[in-house]
């Protein structure tokens, strides 16, 4: 009798056969194509010439007449989209700064065992992970504080996340205690220890949590829809919903451009979509390397 071929083990598991590898490769290729091809189409349509967009019926996969930036010039010429872009930038920058300040200080306080009310406060944070206050109570609170139709209504109610606080706290707990003890022996105050030692040693988790907050604020949609009645205060995501999702036609008065210079509606819509996506795509690669060290380390040690 012939001996059976010996299986090659990789990490304790049998190595997949050639047929299985081919099936996996084909499956992954199809999934990637389903994600990448529409994205390429959005970029190409926003950069294609008006004549080519009209000839293609509204969707261009690869522009053949060269690149045309008229759609971007139109939406960035001082109209509604430009104002919404500035509003989104303000909400993202200010909101992320406030959220990081509150999250890091609260996470630090909860990580220090001598803090007054440490355990009750930690219990409140954990309870907030399980119970949501609900839409109507949240709206009533925003209304009572006089924040309706104000950008602060989009920033303040979500300025702190219990999950992010737990992650930051766990990371602070995992830092070497000897470093903080040495600082206290040298006479450093709690604030000085936090600012000059705790934060510099926690750049990874701060960067990741900052990205979480930044993406959340940049994509803020539902809060703005609830609390903002003045369309001049709408962030970019609400403008995206109006002109792209709902299909409302964009006029010259909305773009601040001459009517005869307007490119096709599809090009303008795709350009708005790209402007709403590109900032996060530009920031993410610089912070992605911190994910494993920041979030996973904090979660495991917590």
Walkthrough of the structure:
It is a single chain. The chain is mainly alpha-helical and 302 residues long. α4 (80-111) packs across α13 (236-245). Residues 298-302 have low confidence and may be disordered. β1 (9-10) and β2 (13-14) form a beta hairpin. 67% of the residues lie in helices and 1% in strands. It has a two-stranded antiparallel sheet with strand order 1-2. The protein is built from 16 helices and two strands. It folds into two domains: 16-68, no CATH class; 74-301, Orthogonal Bundle (MetI-like fold), CATH 1.10.3720.
What do we call the CATH topology of the largest domain? Answer: MetI-like fold
Instruction: Give the biggest beta sheet.
Output: 2 strands, antiparallel
Give unreliable regions as ranges: 298-302
If classified by CATH, what would the architecture of the largest domain be? Orthogonal Bundle
Helix residue percentage: 55-70%
- What is the number of helices? 16
CATH class of the largest domain: Mainly Alpha
Tell the overall outline.
Answer: globular
Residue fraction in strands: under 5%
Strand order of the largest sheet: 1-2
Q: Any idea what the CATH superfamily of the largest domain is called? A: MetI-like
- How many domains comprise the coordinates? 2
Q: How far apart are the termini?
A: 57 Å
Order of helices and strands: EEHHHHHHHHHHHHHHHH
Domain ABC transmembrane type-1: 85-287
Pfam family, one: BPD_transp_1
Subcellular location: Cell membrane
InterPro entries: MetI-like, MetI-like_sf
């Amino acid at each position: 009798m012939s001996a059976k071929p010996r299986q090659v083990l990789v990490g304790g598991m049998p190595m997949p056969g050639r047929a299985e590898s081919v099936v996996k490769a084909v499956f992954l290729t199809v999934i990637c194509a389903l994600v990448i091809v529409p994205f390429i189409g959005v970029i190409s349509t926003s950069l294609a010439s008006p004549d080519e967009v009209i000839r293609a019926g509204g969707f261009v996969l690869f522009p053949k007449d060269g690149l045309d930036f008229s759609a971007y010039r139109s939406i960035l010429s001082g109209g509604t989209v430009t104002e919404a872009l500035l509003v989104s930038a303000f909400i993202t920058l200010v909101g992320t700064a406030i959220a990081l300040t509150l999250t890091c200080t609260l996470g630090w306080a909860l990580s220090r065992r001598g803090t007054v009310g440490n355990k009750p406060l930690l219990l409140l944070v954990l309870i907030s992970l399980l119970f949501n206050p609900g839409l109507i109570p949240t709206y009533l609170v925003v209304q009572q504080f006089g924040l309706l139709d104000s950008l602060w209504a989009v920033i303040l109610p979500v300025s702190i996340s219990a999950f992010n606080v737990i992650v930051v706290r766990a990371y602070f707990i995992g830092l070497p205690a000897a470093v903080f003890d040495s600082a206290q022996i040298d006479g450093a105050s709690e604030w000085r220890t936090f600012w000059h030692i705790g934060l510099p040693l926690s750049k990874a988790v701060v960067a990741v949590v900052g990205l979480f907050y930044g993406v959340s604020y940049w994509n803020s949609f539902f809060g703005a829809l609830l609390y903002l009645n003045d369309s001049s205060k709408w962030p970019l995501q609400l403008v995206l919903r109006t002109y792209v999702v709902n299909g409302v036609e964009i006029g010259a008065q909305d773009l601040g451009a001459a009517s005869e210079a307007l490119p096709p509606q599809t090009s303008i819509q795709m350009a708005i979509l790209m402007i709403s996506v590109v900032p996060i795509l530009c920031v993410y690669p610089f912070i992605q390397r911190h994910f494993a060290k920041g979030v996973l380390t904090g979660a495991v040690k917590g």
